[in-house]
Amino acid sequence: MIKAMKILIVDDSKANALLLLKYLQVEGYSDVSYVLSALEALDVLNKSLDLILMDVMMPEMDGIEAVQQVRKSYNPQQLPIVMVTAADQVGYLKSAFDAGANDYVSKPVNRVEFLARVKNTLDLKRQYDRRVHYERILENTLEEQRVQITAMETTSSGIIIADHVCHVEWMNHAAEELLGYTLEELLSTNLMEHFAEQDRLRVYQQLAQNTNPNAIQEQATQPMIEELVNYYNRNQQQRIAKVSCTSLLVTVHKQKLQKLVLVVHDVTEQESQRIQLENELELAKQIQKNLLPAPMDQKDIQINGYIEVSNRLSGDFYYWHQISESQYGVIIIDVMGHGVSSSLVGMTIRSLLPGIISRIKSPTEVMLELNRHMISLYQSKAYIFACMDYYFTAIYVLIDTEKDMVRYVNSGHPVGILVENCKKFIKLDTGSPPIGLLSQLPMKEAQLSFPKGSRLVLYSDGLLALLPQNYKWQIGILTALIQKSCGKPYGELLDSILRNPENIKENASRDDDITLVVIDRK
């Protein structure tokens, strides 16, 4: 049986929470509970917790904000937080890590990876608890300090004890291995000499701000510095270390002395992998961007699109295709989640669109065909449960400029807005549930007039999130902005929505992809 560690699952989806709960209980974790909102999690927050598994996308308070609230009371070592999210790429996760998250697990959850990350995080938590315990039992004599040092020798973390100006007094074997020097070689030397020049001043400044003897506790509760620092080992190889520094007072022969305790971990390989992944994701982003269609400007129609990606890869995209001299197919899609997984699903669907739209003339049949592909994508029994959360919302419109008509299906997407000659406003809300949720999808199609001088606006929910108030008011605000820009170029509508601070709510979140498609009849 695994030693009891208290774990809290935070997820607004009860099904997801129960799945993680089952994985943990089967593995032997006996003290596991769950709540269905970040606000509930903050209510039950206490020192006995050892790990929080936090979903990102939740109503009322999202996971990023919840992490920020937790970090006001507990540092990442005291209470580790693992994000469980579909936003599994570096650009988005930066916000989570900046807020104080320790690690992440991608949705759909891979059981083996999930349990491995939980075990690793809890192992680090146990090491931290032991280290804190050792620090808290520092006694008032040199003999008792030697007992403390003996305990620190057994840890795999590099530990260095220095005076208040960073002259080395002691370090364990792990620190010797990391730096490539023995204690005797570094004794009384300045540890900062081994830091890269660009990092020395930054660390010195933080030390100066945090080493006021009157403010230092005899039993330090949390590190005053946690930094990534470039350093040089004995072979003058530049490496990267995560340095955590605690300042505390110890009493030696009735005299209080200030000491710095530095815990050092080499993270060179991890940082190298992170940079490589970031570069690869940037390349993928450019490939994805190149797949978007160029603006279309024909004698009878003009189509423009805009996309602002919250992360390096997007789950949103749009596509249009001229089917005949007077017929045009336009679709906007928002795949569930964010990051790598949702973008891969989106690119798979994107590859199907040219053939489907050019071959099938009915919006209903286009959406049903996409649903069949989405369902078949994860039919393998090995993946059916792991991937069951994947779906996408979409609006597909078939425009016929000869007949001045538009036929459409809205599958769970925010309503499109059609402005007929700057006077009549019509919402495109007829359709079906999102694509990929059901194998037999009920589908409704609608037909509207689309005469010359009309404008049709399609968008994603990320755009609505920029506007004040709730969904109903946001639709009204967007309609008013469309009306105000009626008869004006596409660029003015884009500027009024996205770049005019008067129209954007204060502290508006851009955590979701923002997509806008504007179709003008000429």
TrEMBL record:
GO molecular function terms attached to this record: phosphatase activity
Domain PAS: 144-214
PROSITE patterns: PAS, RESPONSE_REGULATORY
Gene3D superfamilies (UniProt xref): 3.40.50.2300, PAS domain (3.30.450.20), PPM-type phosphatase domain (3.60.40.10)
GO annotation, biological process: phosphorelay signal transduction system
UniProt modified residues of type 4-aspartylphosphate: D55
NCBIfam families referenced in this protein's UniProt entry, alphabetically: sensory_box
Boundaries of every Response regulatory domain copy: 6-122
InterPro entries for the chain: Bact_Sigma-Reg (IPR052016), CheY-like_superfamily (IPR011006), PAS (IPR000014), PAS-like_dom_sf (IPR035965), PPM-type-like_dom_sf (IPR036457), PPM-type_phosphatase-like_dom (IPR001932), Sig_transdc_resp-reg_receiver (IPR001789)
SMART domains per UniProt: PAS (SM00091), PP2C_SIG (SM00331), REC (SM00448)
Name recorded for this polypeptide: PAS domain S-box protein
Domain of life of the source: Bacteria
CDD domains linked to this entry: PAS
Keywords on record: Hydrolase, Phosphoprotein
Taxonomic source organism: Desulfuribacillus stibiiarsenatis
